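Slide 14.
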Amino acid sequence: MTKGLDLSTHNGNVDFNLLKQNGIDFVILRLGWIGNKENHTLDSKFESYYNSAKSVGLKVGCYVYSYVETSKAMTSAINWVKNKIQGKSFEYPIFLDLEDSQISYIDKKSMTNLAIQFCQSFENTGIYANKNWFTNKLDINQLLNYKIWLAEWNKTNYTVDFRVDIWQYTSDGSISGISGRVDMNYSYIDVSNSNNSNSNNVGGDFDMPKTWRNGSTDEPVYQDLACTQKIGTIYPREYADCYGIKDGKYIVCYFVTNSKGEVTNRKLGFVKYNGGL
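Slide 15: predicted structure.
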């Protein structure tokens, strides 16, 4: 078990050296928030926090606070997140933060589907929520393939009966290096396992998916390696998961949407464009 913090612009100026000296092993940084009108917003401290944490050797993850209500908006949000983390590496997961009252009306099935849509789009990912949301607003059994970050402000122990990977045990912590209160967490994740690491480095064939981004024109997706049987199209600037390179072709898994922009399926195929990674 290791000790860490989650940080956002509300924490102001942070002395990351002092955090490290006082036993902090990891930080989970707010990337920003995601909305319904492509009005996704970067946390003003994310870049500086990320660079400072990395410079002192802290392990880093990130989270996005969600106001998203539809699958279409989530697709836009996922693309925005992938753009903002391009070129960065994370030892800890990329989390979707589900807690806002604006989206609390969404039924359990739809909320869970939004969570899964987000998590399927990243290599190492998970969901942050409190006990009430995990119990009443999400189907936890469908989310256990991803990391679970539980907020339950009980300094003795958490009280849920499902697996917890990170426990946010207080929102009222204090530590040298930060003025004022701070969220504090215990992690049960073994980040020494390379499969827990998100990376945007590009090599040859690889086991974990990487992010592939289309260029400025429509990119055909083919069923066969010879690229003779077209099965779909990835549109300009859209993203896909890339699972490897075979004979110069990229193996991608992309979202299929209907006329309303709603995700209806995912398909696996080959693309020719080699500038996407």
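Speaker note: The chain has a mean pLDDT of 87.
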